[in-house]
Design a protein that fits this description.
There is one protein chain. The protein is built from 17 helices and ten strands. The protein is an alpha/beta fold and 428 residues long. The strands form two sheets. Strands 2-3-6-8-7-9-10 form a seven-stranded mixed beta sheet, sandwiched between helices. Strands 1-5-4 form a three-stranded mixed beta sheet. The longest helix has 17 residues. The two termini are 43 Å apart. The structure holds zinc ion (ZN).
Amino acid sequence: MSADAGSVAPPPATAKPAAGHIRLTSHSGGIGALAIHWAAPTAAERGPVIGTTTKRAHRNVIGTHSGSYSVYRALAVAAGALSRDHKADLTNTAPTDAIGPYPQWSDPDKIVSLDPWGAVVADVFADELAAGHDMRPTIAVTKADVILPEVMEAVQKGRLRPDGRFLLPSGAALVTKAAVEPVWYLPGVAKRFHCSETDLRRVLFEETGGMYPELVTRPDLEVFLPPIGGQTVYIFGDARDLADPSVELTARVHDECNGSDVFGSDICTCRPYLTHAIEECIHGAQRGGVGLVSYSRKEGRALGEVTKFLVYNARKRQVGGDTADQYFARTECVAGVQDMRFQELMPDVLHWLGIQKIHRLVSMSNMKYDAITGSGIEVGERVNIPDELIPDDARVEIDAKTAAGYFTPGPIPDADELRMAKGRGLDG
Ligand SMILES: [Zn+2]
């Protein structure tokens, strides 16, 4: 690179990046790895999930920790900024709230995509840690004050009343929140998707360009830490109440939409529905219940934001304008499918929290409803997004979804209605 190319100097090399022979993962390291017995009744019988790269012989999973951020970790090692031998110091990192264990944790059909013991590894696997096994929590539980303009507005308009316990006069809501990384038990994931474990392993290997050879060479390793985003749950009220079906639970399961959730784009209802759910959760907690928002990192129906923006253009440039009757078709033209969120794995986090009943589900999605009830969780009332919260440009989305089977207490739009161009053009 020429000197005037404006390049940024790499960080000083404090650790030696990869040197010497390549450390292949595709053959058994053999001695020293602890066994995982998925869904065993106790942590000791289940065994720890060890995805460390520092002691290869101790690894008992495919992949590494931190989901998609494992790639940044590799970059940090390559740049010499991170020692590959760094071991996490877990002092004072324990969860702020006790969650579980619950009966669902040892039911092999209830949880296949996260480690229910993932928040308490430093506690339940203290002996293994002391013996030199390098293990990382895959779940972290903490507390926060969340301050949202929509909640402050609800206070100003008198819809919400600060109580000093769940909602402060400043408009801050007090929450317990948990971040959850994906931990896939491959036989269980295959069962959820009605395919064979062999096919699942082969397709995961081939469709990631051969990223994890162990998927096809190490059938003895049944747990995979996939390089994808996980979930964050926000709990309004006492986390222990989530598992008590006699306590009213208001819950929303929300899939990431950066454009609306963070930047306020008005082409969809994501942020208004999310903040409405938070308002409902606060109301629920104040009534003596508990509230939950589970936020899954599945941007743009898990198709990614590039695909999503391509679809927006295709919708708005098509002959006849942006209409509800072509809403799903335009996605399918670009992506090959209408949706890749596959709600089959979504209820796992609800089972980790011990949930048996959701009294008020703040979602109109039939796919989410079917996945939750299909996993054995009872759902009472379904709460739609109030009409006045739907942005004008998002009318296309909501009409298309209600016509396709989403829950609505109102009328379902007919064919003529669906053919009307309701979305704005690209030039405003
Ligand atoms: Zn959205």
